[in-house]
Write a sequence for this structure.
């Protein structure tokens, strides 16, 4: 992408690059001048300005510091980072961070709120190898997992109810030490005072009410939202006529799933097999 082809309206990445170049030129700086102040090479600056390279959070904050732009570039970066995420997911994350109660059900993989950094990294790296995302986007996915978890460490703490399909804990991800640490993370999660943890065993068969992952959020004003994903996009639903049946189905799921004590016992059994 050369200079004359750079269209700020084409993408958040292009908008970031165009803003970086405009701010630099308004200061009368060359790329070498900005690079020296930010601690990057002039080639790196050029690559971001022309949209060939994604900015990182560190890069954005360095640009703000060097050019005295408050948090302008950090805010622009927040839009860029969502390029590797499903449509609708960024909006969901914003709502999730303020929810009073979070009810989640996952199939196949451990959900992001419960992932260890190592587990999240294995999943992200796999997506890179499939060329589904770039290496920069993979790093941002792992960072987002940590930020989502940190956002829940607030007062008052949200109530988090997690039901995982048995496939989540039996499907090996990464080497044995990665999976073992992940299972230990689930055990630690189950011990928290603001959590409820259950496994939906394979034996539930056709009684399992959900075939796909789903999350139901209760907001501080007690209103409800749900979030579900297809292969192409995520959808945040606010209409109670659609959310209430999901909440009822979630209660049915909990009734059929293993108790927390039984779920912990199953994880301990699986964990022994990863040693």
């Amino acid at each position: 992408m050369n200079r004359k082809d750079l269209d700020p309206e084409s993408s958040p990445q292009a908008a970031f690059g165009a803003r970086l170049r405009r701010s630099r030129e308004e200061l009368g700086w060359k790329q070498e001048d900005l690079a020296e102040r930010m601690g990057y090479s002039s080639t790196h600056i050029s690559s971001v300005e022309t949209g060939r390279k994604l900015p990182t959070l560190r890069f954005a904050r360095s640009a703000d510091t060097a050019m005295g732009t408050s948090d302008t570039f950090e805010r622009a970066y927040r839009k860029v980072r969502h390029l590797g995420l499903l449509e609708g997911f960024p909006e969901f994350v914003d709502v999730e961070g303020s929810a009073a109660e979070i009810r989640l059900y996952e199939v196949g993989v451990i959900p992001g709120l419960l992932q260890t950094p190592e587990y999240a990294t294995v999943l992200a790296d796999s997506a890179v190898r499939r060329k589904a995302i770039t290496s920069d986007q993979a790093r941002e996915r792992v960072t987002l997992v940590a930020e989502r978890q940190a956002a829940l460490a607030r007062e008052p703490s949200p109530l988090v109810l997690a039901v995982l399909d048995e496939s989540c804990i039996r499907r090996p991800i990464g080497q044995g030490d990665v999976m073992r640490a992940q299972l230990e993370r689930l055990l630690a999660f189950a011990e928290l005072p603001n959590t409820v943890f259950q496994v939906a065993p394979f034996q539930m068969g056709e009684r399992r009410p959900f075939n796909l992952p789903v999350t139901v959020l209760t907001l501080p004003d007690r209103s409800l939202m749900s979030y579900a994903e297809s292969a192409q996009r995520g959808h945040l639903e606010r209409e109670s006529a659609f959310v209430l049946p999901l909440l009822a189905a979630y209660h049915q799921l909990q009734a059929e799933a293993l108790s927390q004590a039984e779920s912990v016992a199953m994880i301990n059994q699986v964990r022994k097999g990863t040693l």
